[in-house]
Recover the amino acids of this structure.
């Protein structure tokens, strides 16, 4: 599989949020800059040390592609996924009603009150911190454009598509800056795609990546906020201020369509890699790849991030072998199902090692088979 400028057999990486070192206090030391770290030496040292620690966990595990781990300021890592961006764009007010999406409604929806433009870099400081800590290929994660649009209390644009196009323009500017500074892979986390895609999501995504010299991956998620799988509310479900409240999920609540909701529209996305989980749910969600002729690279999540039990290398290898029935080895990469943020760091690190060790087992088998 192509990773940046090189070909790697069964490359390994991780997705999304990683547990911060416990000394990295989200209130005292997590002041992420609007531009550059210039005057605040304490914040810069703490931030770069935290990133370096997360990079070291990945290096120790033996991962091939190093992720940023989403080290943000503030106490809520999931909240900061959203608020980190709107604080760096014009047109937003950091206040609003609960987000009207199942399992995310404990967060507020920021309000769009004017024209949305990029004012400050989103991830330049993150890229530079990761680059200082590793010589391996680097992957930087962005929240998805549909996620931001869906989670916005829009009081300015006539329709959601207009808002999304404005966000896409801001992202395009940021993507180009990261590409110019040596980013190998940019990953968009579109974790609302499984709930259903309209007629504009792919058009907006393609606008965002237009003219950017970088490899683009899209990760989509079956739900992991507080470790909760995605679901639809039932007709009798409780509602409060227009949003579903976390932990009010009825046992009969239907799950999103998951992978089937992505196709065939995702075939038109100008991306190099699609990624979603297989580890917890099993390989059935790989059938749409075959049914719709997905011919690009695919990165499969093979580590269950909702379980505190670390998989053995052999268990991971078994999952990889089942995926190879749907995706050829030369087009397959491997990762965690989603972010590891809900796990203790010690367990998260052991799961990364299991991922790398399981991939090594299958990689060796494939090489030996070629030599026969």
């Amino acid at each position: 599989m192509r990773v940046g400028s090189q070909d790697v057999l069964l490359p390994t990486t991780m997705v999304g949020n990683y547990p911060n070192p416990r000394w990295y206090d989200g209130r005292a030391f997590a002041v992420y800059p609007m531009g550059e770290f210039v005057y605040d030496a304490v914040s810069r040292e703490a931030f770069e040390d935290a990133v370096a620690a997360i990079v070291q966990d990945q290096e120790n595990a033996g991962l091939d592609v190093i992720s940023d781990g989403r080290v943000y300021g503030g106490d809520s890592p999931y909240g900061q996924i959203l608020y980190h961006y709107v604080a760096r764009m014009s047109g937003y007010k950091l206040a609003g009603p609960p987000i009207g999406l199942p399992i995310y409604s404990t967060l507020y929806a920021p309000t769009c009150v004017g024209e949305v433009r990029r004012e400050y870099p989103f991830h330049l400081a993150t890229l530079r911190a990761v680059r200082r800590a590793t010589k391996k290929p680097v992957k930087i994660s962005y929240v998805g454009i549909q996620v931001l649009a869906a989670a916005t209390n829009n009081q300015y644009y006539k329709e959601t598509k207009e808002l999304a196009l404005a966000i896409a323009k801001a992202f395009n500017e940021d993507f180009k800056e990261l590409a110019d500074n040596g980013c190998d892979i940019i990953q968009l986390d579109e974790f609302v795609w499984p709930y259903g895609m309209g007629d504009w999501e792919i058009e907006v995504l393609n606008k965002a990546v237009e003219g950017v010299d970088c490899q683009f991956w899209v990760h989509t998620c079956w739900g992991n906020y507080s470790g909760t799988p995605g679901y639809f509310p039932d007709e009798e479900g409780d509602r409060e201020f227009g949003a579903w409240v976390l932990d009010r999920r009825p046992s009969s609540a239907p799950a999103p369509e998951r992978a089937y909701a992505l196709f065939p529209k995702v075939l038109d996305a100008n991306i190099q890699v699609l990624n979603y989980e297989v580890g917890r749910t099993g390989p059935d969600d790989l059938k749409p790849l075959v049914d719709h002729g997905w011919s690009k690279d695919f990165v499969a999540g093979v580590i269950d991030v909702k379980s505190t039990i670390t998989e053995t290398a052999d268990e991971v290898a078994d999952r990889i072998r089942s995926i190879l029935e749907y995706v050829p080895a030369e087009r397959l990469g491997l990762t965690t199902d989603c972010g590891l943020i809900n796990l203790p760091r010690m367990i998260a690190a052991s799961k990364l090692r299991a991922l790398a060790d399981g991939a090594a087992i299958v990689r060796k088998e494939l090489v030996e088979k070629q030599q026969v």
Q: What stands out?
A: The first helix runs from residue 41 to 61. DSSP finds ten helices and twelve strands in the chain. The chain has a mean pLDDT of 90.
